[in-house]
Amino acid sequence: MLFRLVIQNYAIIEQLEVDFSANLNVITGETGAGKSILLGALSLILGERADPSVLFDKTRKCVIEGQFKVKREQVQAFFEANELDLEEGVIIRREISAAGKSRAFINDTPVNLGQLSELSGLLVDLHQQFDTLELEKSDFQRQVIDALAGHHDQLQLYTRQFRDYSRLQKELKELEQQRDHANKESDYHKFLLDELLEAALQDGEVEALEAEQQMLSHAEEIKGTLNRICFQLSEDEQPVLQQLRQLQASLQTLAAYHKDIPALSERMQSSYLELQDIAAEVEQLNDHVQFDGERLEQLTERLNMANRLLKKHNAHNTGELLAIQADLDQKLQGMLNLDDRILELQKNIAVLQQQLEQAASAITRERKAKVEPFEQKVNALLAQVGMPNARIKVDIQQGPLQLYGQDVIEFLFDANKGNQFGPIRKVASGGELSRLMLCIKSLVARSVALPTLIFDEIDTGISGEAARQVGIIMKELARGHQVVCITHQPQLAGKADAHYFVYKQLEGEKVHTHVRLLTQEERITAIAKMLSGEKPTAAALENAREMVTQ
Questions:
Q1: Burial of 413 from C-beta contacts in 10 A (0-12 / 13-18 / 19+)
Q2: In the CATH scheme, what is the homologous superfamily, with its name and number, of domain 1-132+447-518?
Q3: Which terminus of the chain is less hemmed in, N or C, by CB atoms within 10 Å?
Q4: Alpha carbons 338 and 193: distance in angstroms, whole number
């Protein structure tokens, strides 16, 4: 509930604090005294856009602060979602600087207007005359019937299942699109894969084939050179190995005459042994190098095939071709997995759809069971508030499965017993809508915990017994909810638990708006003035006293 409203430097309010009661709060005052200014200030902490022109003193900032007592479960989800600290109470503050910059705070933490509006919607329900957008919304109409049906847990379970159902449908649609796109390419991918599989290339094969082709293509040149090397190393008239052996032996004879010669002799011996090994390997290699025309033809044919594949796939080596082959295989395998997943999703969706249809049917039955009692109660309340010929009818039509069932719910209205029912938004006047909203909210309030309810002149256009009945409904509504009502009707003011009087006062050269909580006697006088004018008669005073004490 809103237990304190603080206003500084707003319109013609320099400084104002109002402490509200937990039940029915009534605000009265002369036309133009500033009642609407109070609501204007309140709307700022409810997330409305700020207008710098409202500053009372253009050199100072404007501050509007609302202090609320809340039940933790009422706002906990919001505070957790927005990573805000939840304390015993909630303080919403809005500041407008002299330069026109607006800032908003929740428990001293800066927030944006979206967050402010979301939280204020959990705390305050502001209903102004002709402000009937909420009543016209299909979501609100459904929420009314659901509140009366009392199937909150069942509806939550259905909603969770429907979200799962929607998620699976979205996934199915995306997979089907992937499959349709993949189908256009799958035949070509299969052709490419088959071609690579038929080639059966091994890792590094192209590079090995090219090396072998080079060797066979130059076999005669290689063999001639190797023969010459073998001959010069071992078989010439003066073979290189023999000369080196003789040179090493000559050097060895000098070993005793110089300290560095033994080391040189050892190195020459090592060179001799190394060259001897080289001669043996050259001879062995020479024996293995043979020209093979048939093998060369085979190599050329396979390399031509491999090079064609390399060029086709823009690859540079066998490894890249094999990677492309693996990727094609994975894509085709993915197609098979995609079909399996689509089939699985279709089965799951069918099962879930059947469950949703059964749950939605049960929800529909519970809603329809509440329609007739709801219509009867609202129609009785409409007669009570001075609309004896008005009727409401709830139309429930079956639609597709959606987040809250499969029902399309619309409130229809007939103001003149003509059995000419039409959508509320088209056939009801502003005054009718205001009273209709009051009747509906008074019924819903018995089933759910509504936030603080604020009514701005909801009783405009009625008087006498109808006004008294509105007061009775307001009083009943305030037994379980905080209600703030701006009114010109003495019958409603007489039902107040707390009566606030708004008035203007000239201070210096400026007019200021003030709000005062009236005592019992002051209430009687104020209500008497509402009944008979500025100078109330004895009868008006007596009538006012009776209204207050009833």
A1: buried
A2: P-loop containing nucleotide triphosphate hydrolases (3.40.50.300)
A3: C
A4: 19
